[in-house]
Design goal:
This protein is α+β, with helices and mostly antiparallel strands and 271 residues long. It has 2 helices and 20 strands.
Amino acid sequence: MVRSLWTAATGMIAQQANLDTIAHNLSNVNTYGYKTEVNEFKSLLYQTLQTRTTTANGDQKPTSAQVGLGVRNSAISSIFTTGNMINTGRETSFAIDGKGFFAVRGADGNTYYTRNGNLQFTLSGNGNMLADSEGLPVLDTNANPIILSEDYVVSNIVVSSDGTICYPDESGNPQSLGITIGLYQFNNPNGLEKLADSLYAQSAASGQPINESTNPNVQRSKVIQNYLEGSNVQVADEMVNMIVAQRAYELNSKAIIASDEMLQQANNLRR
């Protein structure tokens, strides 16, 4: 009975973490480029009550008697499906149609990755630098910050579907500036380390970033200007998941109450 108390308690702890994840998803329903996260569970150790043996009559017992000791959260995975495309009308809004990520240079000098294409041009010492909403420089296909001369009117910048930055000539026809926004893929995006501000960091589980412009073995993503990729959170699904998590939490709490009542009855046997 004491074992059942702790087993049910692990279920309540696991469902609390599940509810926290659902709440995190709902809070980011309007976050550009956010990806839904889901909890994954695994059972804890099993305790062997009786090994495979024979009965009193000498008959073989093909299975042992084992009891589980509860559950725990094994991982919180992200679902990297494409969100809805939102038309913003801004020249520096970019959505990715595909598996690619934008690359940005962090304040610590490391490279991070994001699906949030809410970018902007900011003044730097060398001209107009393309940066994300936090001011981090966006990198090109050569992993260099994208900086344009101050002679260019940034509102006239055009970006093609392959990420090439163009500027209209005297005839109004877009001409390439020789700079392409970098897009990178990962063999296992679920292995990326999640950071704040919709940023991801590469890890041993995700593998090295794959530069789409230099690797012909990957399907290239498309850059869609004037659009942003919305969150792929489905509110209706999250509300259903919340109800399921609450019911599972209540069920585990009732198991604790039942075990407590059985212990109370056992204590009362001495009276």
